[in-house]
């Protein structure tokens, strides 16, 4: 299962995401990602295979995602049973640290010192990022497309036809997007809070990304334009 949003039976025709590699007869290593040393070992074997035989090799890290896609996402909405199991799992770092401490390879103060050292690197980088005032687009583009950017990577000014809607239509779409279409239907408490917040936004004439997306899709549907969404998050909607 990739992430948590798509059940395996919906996503592909076999239980392993790596089965496609059988088409080219590539060796496939399945490794427990809770065991860092096994992961490193398998990756070394894979690298040696590549350098020796110049053929593809695939490593399948058997692992899980502890949190949602981002800070706003709650995986318990769509996969409550799996996430109850995940909550019980010790994090990989904690497992490995306990193993090394029990073997006498490191002691608790040394472990805590390394964690603090890494946290400091992250915090300092985060603080430095706030000083950046200019976004250097061209550093990220190997060949800036002239339709969007000038040759030195700066955005072109572009015009587009007006796609605005009157407020009455937007309010209608917002009200539909913040309501439950079926009567006497019990929805998840977290979702009901989201719908309530969305309804309040419509009343206060404000939008966030999710509501703006709903209004865009809703306005196209109201005009009779069919919309087909693809991708693994479309069934559960935006975050």
UniProtKB/TrEMBL annotation:
It is found in: Mitochondrion; Nucleus. Its cofactor is Mg(2+); thiamine diphosphate. Its main location: mitochondrion. GO terms for molecular function: oxoglutarate dehydrogenase (succinyl-transferring) activity; thiamine pyrophosphate binding. Keywords: Calcium, Glycolysis, Magnesium, Mitochondrion, Nucleus, Oxidoreductase, Thiamine pyrophosphate, Transit peptide. It comes from the Eukaryota. Gene3D superfamilies: 3.40.50.12470, 3.40.50.970. GO terms for biological process: glycolytic process; tricarboxylic acid cycle. It holds the Pfam family E1_dh. GO terms for cellular component: mitochondrion; nucleus; oxoglutarate dehydrogenase complex. Residues 1-137 form the Dehydrogenase E1 component domain. Belongs to the alpha-ketoglutarate dehydrogenase family. This is oxoglutarate dehydrogenase (succinyl-transferring). The gene is Ogdh.
């Amino acid at each position: 299962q990739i992430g948590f949003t798509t059940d395996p039976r919906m996503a592909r025709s076999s239980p392993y995401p790596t089965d496609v590699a059988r088409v080219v007869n590539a060796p496939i290593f399945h490794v427990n990602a809770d065991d860092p040393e096994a992961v490193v070992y398998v990756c070394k074997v894979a690298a040696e295979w590549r350098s020796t035989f110049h053929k593809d090799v695939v490593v399948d890290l058997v692992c899980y995602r502890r949190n949602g896609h981002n800070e706003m996402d709650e995986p318990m909405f769509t996969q409550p049973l799996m996430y109850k199991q995940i909550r019980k799992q010790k994090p990989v770092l904690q497992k490995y640290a306990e193993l090394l401490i029990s073997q006498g390879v490191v002691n608790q103060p040394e472990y805590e010192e390394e964690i603090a050292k890494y946290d400091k690197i992250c915090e300092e980088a985060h603080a430095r990022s706030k000083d950046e005032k200019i976004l250097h687009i061209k550093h990220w583009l190997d060949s800036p497309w002239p339709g969007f950017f000038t040759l030195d990577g700066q955005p072109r000014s572009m015009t587009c036809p007006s796609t605005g809607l009157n407020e009455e239509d937007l309010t209608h779409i917002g009200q539909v997007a913040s309501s439950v279409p079926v009567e006497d239907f019990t929805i998840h408490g977290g979702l009901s809070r989201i719908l309530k917040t969305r309804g309040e936004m419509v009343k206060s004439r404000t939008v966030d990304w999710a509501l703006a997306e709903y209004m865009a899709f809703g306005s196209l549907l109201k005009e009779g334009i069919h919309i087909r969404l693809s991708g693994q998050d479309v069934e559960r909607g935006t975050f």
